[in-house]
Structure prediction request, 160 residues.
Amino acid sequence: MNITPEQALERLMNTCTRYETSTFKAGQKLQQWKIDNVEQEKILQQLVRQHFIDDARYARNFVRNKSQRSQWGAQKIRAYLQQQRLSADLIAQALQEIDVACEPEVLKKLLNKKWSQTKGKNDADVLAKLTRFGVQKGYKYSLVAEVLRALAKERNVDNE
Prediction:
C-alpha cells in the first residue's frame, strides 16, 4: 500500500496514542507502506522527538506485561526485545522490572497447572514435557529443573 509520508506520520501518531510501539516496529510499518528511507528517518525522528515513540518506555511496559500477565521468563522476554533491535543496555534496564524473587513461585504455579493437563507414557515423559514447557516460557533450565524436583517430591513422583 502506497501512502504519502504525511499520511504515514498521521497513522503512526494515531497508532502510538493507542499502544506502545518500538522504533523498529514503526520502521517496519513505514517500509510496508513503501515510504523511502530518507522520509522514514525523518518520520521516526519526529515521533521520538514528540515522545510518541520511546524505546525505553516500550521495553519497560513489554517486560511488565509479559512477566506479569503472560508469565514469561526473562530469557524469552530478552529474546523478543533483541528481535526488536533494542540495545543491550535498554533491555537490561527493562528486565529489572521483573521481580526475580517471585520467579520460582510463578513458575511453580505454571508447572503445577500444566502438570494436571499433561499426559505421558510415564512420569519421565511428563517431566520431560514440563521441562520443555518451562524453558519455552523463558525460564532458565536450572530453575525449571529445581522447581520440577520440588513438585515431583510433593506429588511423590520419581523424577530420576
Notes: The chain has a mean pLDDT of 94. Residues 116 and 150 are 16 Å apart (CA to CA).
